[in-house]
Write a structure and sequence with these properties.
Elements: H1 2-9, H2 23-45, H3 52-78, E1 83-84, H4 86-97, H5 104-116, H6 131-141, H7 152-155, H8 158-165, H9 167-185, H10 189-212, H11 233-238, H12 245-250, H13 266-274, E2 280-281, H14 288-302, H15 309-338, H16 343-377
Antiparallel strand pairs: 1-2
Helix pairs in contact: 2-10, 3-4, 3-5, 3-9, 3-10, 3-13, 9-10, 14-15, 15-16
Length: 391
């Protein structure tokens, strides 16, 4: 009977209907934004002042938010891009609750639908409906998701079912009571509650929402032009690495959103360091050859090569080098997995071959970029909105 009741009342949020006020979410957000926007300024106006304890607690709570949403909710639970220890799961759930963005089950069910049905009416935050809808409209204008059929792996976990059932207590303790108690320790309870609690909530939520809106409107598309998701340095800085959105939608199971070493992505650094603390393991990385292939496919789609045989020839050379690189990389992974007695001996020459194949491809790719830029300079190719030089 309970199972039948669950089935009848299950709801999946979509973008297919008109604006249907979600009074539960509206009632939840109004006090947060009233206290967050006016409470802290009013406190300062009345002479409360700013001291280091509330700033330190605010920074700590912001770091908790990154662990909760970026590391836990998004990359850990939604995409399973790495495995978490039981302690890490509890930390992720506690920290994620502090952001006021709903339970793991609801958040991940919506996000998985977003990836599966991107830019369609079945996408809960379909950006094609409007910038505002993707930003916050879907939260206050559509029902909260309670249909978790796309999250059977998550629904099996008692911790996540408990958080979904008792989300309000989880939120109050992690988001408001916790910074308040820390404030009492340093004799700054009200200041800590207002800054590290309410104001921090608004900042975290708005930065998160910008990934659904701004990062689908502005930026570059180096890895796929068939989707609206774009790479945005602005969003990457504000949302702790989540702004490398074109890459993420092209390779959603990579624990890195910013795959380059210099890409600003605190979440990936936390996940990586977590390995050495026993909190994370089995980190999934997209093979570098696949990343290059995606970039190459995107660049090819932007230019007409039929009338330029020399560019076609260079393109074919890149394909050959890339295929060789990928084949050797597969052999490398297979050899590491088997670990025979002589596997280390075989790895060395194989690694050398991989390096040579990679060098061949990069040389061909650099030649491709040079020749393509020359063709553009001489007017042999038409420019496109997303230029190859920006990739």
């Amino acid at each position: 009977m309970a199972k039948e009741k669950f089935k009848r009342t299950s709801i999946a949020s979509t973008s297919s209907l008109g604006f249907d006020p979600n009074w539960k979410n509206i009632g939840f957000l109004i006090p947060i934004y009233v206290f967050g926007l006016f409470g802290w300024p009013l406190y300062l106006y009345l002479g409360g002042g700013i001291q280091w304890p509330e700033l330190a607690i605010g920074f700590l709570m912001y770091a908790f938010s990154i662990i909760g949403v970026c590391v836990g909710y998004h990359r850990g639970f939604s995409h399973r891009s790495f495995k978490m220890s039981p302690l890490m799961k509890w930390i992720a759930v506690f920290c994620g609750s502090s952001t006021g963005e709903g339970s793991v089950l609801s958040w991940c069910a919506d996000h998985r639908r977003h990836h599966r049905y991107e830019d369609t009416e079945l996408d809960p935050y379909n950006v094609n409906r409007s910038f505002w809808w993707a930003h916050m409209g879907w939260i206050v204008g559509s029902p909260t998701t309670t249909e978790f059929s796309n999250c059977p792996d998550l629904y099996r976990e008692p911790l996540l079912r408990n958080q979904d059932k008792f989300y309000v207590p989880w939120f109050l303790v992690s988001s408001l009571l916790f910074p308040l108690l820390l404030g009492f320790v340093f004799d700054r309870p009200l200041a800590s509650l207002l800054l590290a609690g309410f104001t921090r909530l608004i900042i975290v939520q708005q930065f998160t929402f910008m990934i659904n809106s701004y990062a689908h409107y502005f930026g570059r598309r180096p890895y796929s032009t068939e989707i609206t998701a774009k790479d945005s340095l602005i969003c990457a800085i504000m949302a702790s690495g989540e702004g490398w959105h074109n890459y993420h939608h092209r390779f959603p199971f990579d624990y890195r959103n910013g795959h380059r070493l210099y890409h600003w992505d605190p979440a990936k650094w936390m996940i990586y360091v977590g390995q050495f603390l026993g909190l994370t393991r089995t980190l999934i990385r997209t093979p570098q050859a696949e990343i290059y292939r995606a970039r190459l496919q995107t660049q090819r789609a932007k230019w007409s090569l039929e009338d330029h045989p020399h560019l076609e020839k260079i393109s074919d050379r890149m394909d050959e080098a890339l295929q060789k690189w990928q084949k050797l990389s597969v052999e490398w992974e297979a050899l590491k997995a088997k670990k025979h007695d002589d596997w280390k001996v075989k790895l060395r020459p194989l690694r050398q071959k991989i390096c040579e194949a990679r060098a061949d491809y990069i040389a061909a790719y650099q030649n491709w970029k040079f020749q393509l830029n020359e063709a553009i300079r001489l007017g042999l190719a038409a420019a496109s909105p997303d230029s190859a030089s920006s990739n």
